[in-house]
Design brief:
alpha/beta, 18 helices, 14 strands, Rossmann fold, N-(1-d-carboxylethyl)-l-norvaline Dehydrogenase, domain 2
Length: 435
């Protein structure tokens, strides 16, 4: 099949490379000329674990190409995937659909033969109806169906998730479109579940899923707070909870709160949609508020640990919103750093992949270290904010020698607590007391 993909970000690029890998002709288009020029030159514009090798392989094979010309991506395509951003509105926090509607309006004039237009972006209920109307108004003779094809790729695991989907949800009432989607995903036949529902149900499934997972994260963080006060260990509690098949063991890692490009904006959009239709989402709203407070609480814990140190230097390990990606959008780590800066704390940070993106956001407000050890040199406290494996493998003996004061706030429960305590560190983690 020929597949056109509009948008080359954290959804569009892994999806495009993935479809190319299973034998399709994929043309990706984006308005950002600099990004497209880099991709044409074989330079990845995002970091995703496992993407680099597949990217180079499929460029060399000629199965994936990149252009700023939408006609090249759309004309003659069997399927066009819209994978542009839907950022939150700065006031209402609803999903901003200007990029979606701009893409739909532009692609309409390039539709030739029958085409399935699929929204990969996360969009509010009813967006498919609006896209359908926009295309029909722009090109009355076009033969097409608009479907909802929500993505369930986890950043940091997008390549793995593309090839190992736990489900494929398709929102359409068109048998013709359904058959084309079945053909597109034929390589996954027998390996996953494919669910065909109405377009509006499909649009809701994505939001409902992300809101539920966000609530699960916030819940385990509340349990972690309880454990710290009661003497229980949240890691043991989470393990016991996760053995219950009704609960499952995923998204039960206590930490500094959820973040990234999906959960924050999708929970806010879900709450907004609830108010719009007259169905208040009380659990979702409580989760949003609790998650915002979580990051403030983490910063307050850091400040409490250094309150008696004048001009304290705090070393931060981790800036990306999670391991496996360089994405700093809505990163809880960045939020904690921002809270520390409000309190005039001197921060020096290190992240294996996200330094460039973090610098674009924070500029010279913090210092940037070349590695974990450079970050902790002469530091009065070390704060672990992202779950990079590299951090768990650090030699704490060296860290102890380099730091000005032995204080660790391990907000990802990654380090060897026994080792840290034996070296004389004042060690804090999430969800349990260290004796």
């Amino acid at each position: 099949m020929k597949i056109g993909i509009i948008g080359t970000g954290y959804v569009g690029l892994p999806t495009g490379v993935g479809f190319a890998e299973i034998g399709n002709e994929v043309v990706c288009t984006d308005k950002n000329k600099e990004k497209i020029d880099d991709l044409k030159a074989g330079k990845l514009t995002i970091y995703e674990d496992g993407l680099e090798e597949l990217f180079a392989k499929n460029i060399a094979a000629g199965r994936v190409s990149f252009t700023t010309n939408m006609r090249k991506a759309v004309a003659g395509a069997d399927v066009v995937l819209i994978a542009v951003g839907t950022p939150p509105h700065p006031v209402t926090h609803e999903a901003d659909l200007k990029y979606i509607y701009a893409a739909a309006t532009e692609l309409a004039e390039y539709l030739t033969d029958y085409t399935v237009v699929a929204t990969k972006s996360t969009v509010p209920v009813g967006t498919g109806d609006n896209i359908e109307q926009l295309i029909a108004d722009k090109n009355p003779t076009a033969r097409f169906d608009v479907i909802s094809l929500p993505e369930f790729l986890r950043e940091g695991f997008a390549v793995h998730d593309f090839f190992n989907p736990d489900r494929i949800v398709v929102g359409t009432n068109s048998e013709k479109a359904a058959n084309i989607v079945k053909e597109l995903y034929k390589p996954f036949e027998g390996k996953t579940n494919m669910l065909f529902v109405s377009r509006r149900s499909s649009e809701t499934i994505k939001y409902a899923s992300n809101a539920f997972l966000a609530m699960k994260i916030h819940y385990i963080n509340e349990i972690a707070n309880f454990c710290e006060k009661s003497g229980a260990d949240v890691t043991e509690v989470a393990k016991g909870m996760g053995m219950d098949g009704r609960i499952g063991n995923k998204f039960l890692n206590a930490g500094i709160g959820f973040g990234g490009s999906c959960f924050p904006k999708d929970t806010m959009a879900m709450a907004y949609m609830g108010h719009l239709v007259g169905s208040t989402m009380e659990l979702v709203e409580t989760t949003i508020n609790g998650n915002n407070k979580r990051k403030q609480q983490m910063a307050e814990r850091v400040c409490a640990a250094i309150k008696d140190v004048e001009n304290a230097k705090v070393a931060v390990w981790g800036l990306a919103f999670k391991n496996g990606t360089d994405d700093c959008r809505e990163s809880p780590a960045m939020d904690v750093v921002a809270e520390l800066l409000k309190k005039h704390v001197n921060v020096v940070a290190y992240d294996p992949k996200a330094m460039k993106n973090a610098c674009q956001i924070l500029g010279d407000k913090i210092g940037y270290a070349d590695d974990v050890y450079a970050a902790v040199k002469d530091a009065d406290a070390l704060v672990v904010l992202t779950e990079w494996k590299e951090f768990s493998e650090v030699d704490l003996d060296v860290v102890a020698q380099l730091m000005n004061r032995k204080t660790i706030l391990d907000f990802r429960n990654m380090l060897d607590s026994n080792k840290a305590v034996s070296l004389g560190f004042e060690y804090q983690c999430i969800g349990k007391k260290i004796v």
